[in-house]
Amino acid sequence: MHALVIYAHPEPQSFNAVLRDVAASTLTDSGYEVEVSDLYAMKFKAVLDRDDFSTVHDEQRFNVTLEQRHAATHHSLANDIVAELDKLLRADLVIFQFPLWWFGLPAILKGWIDRVFVSGVVYGRSNIFERGKLKGKRALVSVTTGGPAASFGRDALNGDLLDILAPLHRGVLAFTGMTVLPPFICAHVPYAGPQERVEMSHRYREHLLALDRLKPLEMPRLADHLEEIESSMKARAR
Amino acid sequence: MHALVIYAHPEPQSFNAVLRDVAASTLTDSGYEVEVSDLYAMKFKAVLDRDDFSTVHDEQRFNVTLEQRHAATHHSLANDIVAELDKLLRADLVIFQFPLWWFGLPAILKGWIDRVFVSGVVYGRSNIFERGKLKGKRALVSVTTGGPAASFGRDALNGDLLDILAPLHRGVLAFTGMTVLPPFICAHVPYAGPQERVEMSHRYREHLLALDRLKPLEMPRLADHLEEIESSMKARAR
């Protein structure tokens, strides 16, 4: 079993780094081969552009999807993309470790998704959701927040964290066919003392040891929506 | 009246560029002074790190919020951040023009927010939502999607676009006090023919001309949540 931890925090001593290390050691103890992509340490290129490909499919007009499919077919993806794709494709479990910045991913991590989730490789026209090309892999989001736990929730100021994470859970992970495990959340981290940090890291170890017993999040199935997709294709064809 | 259009697309001939130009011309016709930040053309730095600041508040540990506040006070933010902040602070209307990538912002645009939405300048400890420092400004999201219109909606495969955009609408724009206008959405753009593109760009001009009559999205108010925030602060202090 392989695991990949995608880690995005600029401070090596951050609590996110502690959680990254908890994941690596716990999963190793559980028999996983663990790889870590430390995006800041790697100075990972965040911005998708023509330099992502050594081929040019259409020099007149840069269409991301078409260039990605072309480069995937012609083995002309940039080396850093190929390296991350290899890690992703051999992983049975993919963990995203990051601080919630502006209700979303730090740009370096969003760029990892923009660039590494290559069309034709991780998804295709009708290869989405239960037909996605990453089917069989499990994904876990481990996120820290600056806001206090009480500020998150259906009726709370910031809304529910599952809603905030839905674009990642549903639109990235389930979209490509992955099974999405319940996220691990540490709230109000900048204000947590040493004892509380130790407790949170222990709680994370327990979460990871219990992975096989966690009930995945419910996600839509393409099969239940074929009519709506076909009707819009027909409307377009008219 | 000043308007700022933040535009993030790697292809100068893209339909997003058409919409950017529709906004610039329509708003100019309406009497606005319009500025455009073309993030790809500017090669805008997407990744927040120590290079964002010419001062160091804590050399042992890089805490983004504390370094931002320190640099804002000491006028030591990087030049590109200062330039964008100046545009943002003088704008009465801020438009975000981008293609939806992986249910979210292209990384270069997320990086613009991570770096330019500086703590202490656009928000502060209790200066959020209706007390946010960008209060009085209006924000409009103009987004294109690859998926067909029928794939978006409460019961559709991809879910409702207002939910997909909620982290931006609520967690960035309303969070800093901005009034959030209903978004302008063009679906299935890669498959739209020339005539349909013309129709969509006319529809956008109408949307922009009607801005003053659009009912802003409803957003939470800090005043309605003070108890929940205070209780978590007390819990922390114990």
Automatic annotation (TrEMBL), chains A, B:
Residue limits of the Flavodoxin-like fold domain? Answer: 1-208
Q: Which Gene3D superfamilies does the entry mention?
A: 3.40.50.360
Could you tell me the keywords of this UniProt record? Answer: Oxidoreductase
Q: Which SUPFAM superfamilies match?
A: Flavoproteins (SSF52218)
Q: Where are the transmembrane segments?
A: none
Q: Provide a Gene Ontology MF annotation, just one.
A: NAD(P)H dehydrogenase (quinone) activity
Recorded GO cellular component terms are:
cytosol
EC no.? 1.6.5.2
Q: Which Pfam families match?
A: Flavodoxin_2
| Top-level taxon of origin | Bacteria
Which protein family is it in?
Belongs to the NAD(P)H dehydrogenase (quinone) family.
Record's protein name: NAD(P)H dehydrogenase (Quinone)
What is the organism field in this record?
Answer: Variovorax paradoxus
